[in-house]
Every structure is written in structure tokens, then in C-alpha cells.
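REVIEWER CHECKLIST
Item 1: Sequence provided? yes
Item 2: Single chain? yes
Item 3: Sequence as submitted:
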Amino acid sequence: MSNMALSCSNLCSHLSLIRLCGLRTNIINNGVYSPYTAYQSGLPLCRHYSSSKVRRGVVRYVSSKLQRVNTKYEAFLKRRFPRFFQLYHTFVEVFYRRLIPGFKLLYQDGKAVGRIKAKMGTMGVKAKDLPYRDMEMLRHFRRNTVKAVPLVLLSIPPFANYLVFVLMYFFPRQLLVPYFWTPSQKVEFQGIYHSLRAQHHLPVLQGLERTSHTIKDGQLQGRLRDLCAKVQNGVTPKASEILAVRSLFSGPPLGVKRMSTDHMRHISPLLFLTPRLPGFLIGRRLNSHALELLQLDRALIRLGPQQLSEAELRQACFVRGLNSGRLDVDQCRAWLSQWLQVSSSLKDSEVSLLLHNLVLLSVNHPKGSSGH
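Item 4: Structure as written out by the authors:
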């Protein structure tokens, strides 16, 4: 957020983007709430001034400049491109009402992330030792910020931001971060993302079955083949049955960096990671995300799963492979408890089993998967 504020002077010629970011100030005169008012006290630029009068003077100066340029820019569009301006104006009015709450949440989360990082710096707290909600906040905010960066970059060239604005209207799932989704869109998009993830369930199970034939230990080979057969026959295995083969996932053939590249390419979409990278990069990313998920599980155990709100519970299940939007709260709590039984027993070197658990535990859960 601070980087966007400091680069504001470079973007003044693209006022539709500024308007999109909730900095349109002329609506205050009409008695409509503007998020810019809410942001005034938190602008990073103003923190360098000790006097509140100076701060207010700077804000008034910047806002007047933005309003003046914005008025001239829109007058130019209206005069030279009247049809496009009418379409643009319609989109702005519809989107502006939706984006205000989204930017408010984004700003609040940005402040929270700043406090968390400040605490980590001053107190020497490592990420893995953070409380669950702080750890989840950092993970969630980082991923959403990364998704938003290409959209901001595309908006920089002259007039490109108008095209981006229209694309955002028609493709909200692909271009907008969840802060700007409506409640119904969140449920709908979560279902779509899960259906994309579920397409890789069967290939992962088939990969496990093929790998079982290469295992020399007869007992472990039999356990893995039985586990795969049970899941493929529509049965959800117990935590004890999954943990019985844990030793196979700490080294060859199923350790994170020991799996075949094709197998890793099917596991990557389970975490919403692109499989279109060289094998060694896929292995590193899978290992990093698996360790992050394991640390998140440990933090959740410290907190106590019963402390989660319904929204937090559903999000926790979805991140771990379950289509939680189609389950009731009790089903979500029971499933998460089973997941944590497996997770709590794993070492860092066994995180590959946690990745496969995204399939083993969720694929046959009642109403929890779209099938394969």
C-alpha cells in the first residue's frame, strides 16, 4: 500500500485508476462516503509531518490536484470519445459501490500485516512461531498482493487502464482479488477453483499406484497399494492408515524432491501453483508451500481448531483440499480434526505426505469433492 501511495505522482495522468482505487474526492460534496477520507489519517506520506495542520494541508493540496486533473481527463474523454465515456461511466458507478468495501478491507489487512512484520522485526519472532491468525493473514495477504501486481502494471500505459477496468468487470475471478468479490461470488468461485483442483485427483492416485510397484519393501508396498485401492473405491481412509506409509514420503520414491516431474506437475494445481515450470523449480515450490502448510497446522493446533469462526473454518478446510462451501459446520470440523491427526504426527522431512493428503482425505468426503 505504501509503495502505491508513493508512486501516486507517476500515475496522475491515469486518473481512472486513481478513481478505481477509491481516491475520487468530488463525491464528498454530494454527501456520499469516500474511502479517501478514511485513508487520510493513514497515508504514509503524512507520517513524516508532526503538525496535524501540515498534514491536512498536504492532503487538501494533493486531493485538489487529483480532482482537477481528473475533471480535465474526463472532459477530454467525453468530448473525443463520447460512447466510450458513457460505457466507462456506467462501469465506474457500478464498480465504485462494490470496490469501496473491498479497498477498506484491503487497507485494514495491509495495516495488520505491517503490525505483524513490525512485531517480527522488533521481537525477533520467526514466521513459524507466529499465532495462527497472524500466519494466515501473512499468507493470504501475500498471495492476493502478488495476484494484483500484474493488473496494476497493465494499468500504467496511457488508456490501458480503461481496458483493464472493463476486463475486471467481465472477468472478476481472474483479475480481481477476493477482497472485491461479492459473497455469492466467493462461493461460486471457490467451487470453480475446487473443480479445477479435482481434475488432478485421479492422476495423483494413479501416480501413487504406479510408484507402489517400485517399492522393494513388500509390507510397505502392500499398504500403499491397499490405500490407493481403498480411495479409488470411494472410501475415505483413516488417519492411521495414511500414517502407516509415512516413511515412503521422506525419501525416494515419494519425497518432495524425489518424485517424478510428471507426478509433481499433478500435485502443483492442488495448491493452485502453476505446473509449467522446470522440474527442480516445481520441487522447490512444493517443498516451500508444504512446509508453510505444516507450520500453519501446528499453529492451528496451538490455537485450538474449536476457536475458529465459521468463515475461518471453511477457509481452513478449503486451503487443505476440501470444497467446504458444500458442507455444514459440523462436517467441516470433523474433517479438519482428521486432517490435523495426520499433520500433527509428521516431521518436516515428511511434508510430501501432507501434499498427498490433499487428495487422500478429500476426494471421497461426502459432498466435499466434485468427483473425478
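Item 5: Key structural point noted by reviewer: The CA atoms of residues 205 and 228 lie 6 Å apart.
Item 6: Recommendation: ____
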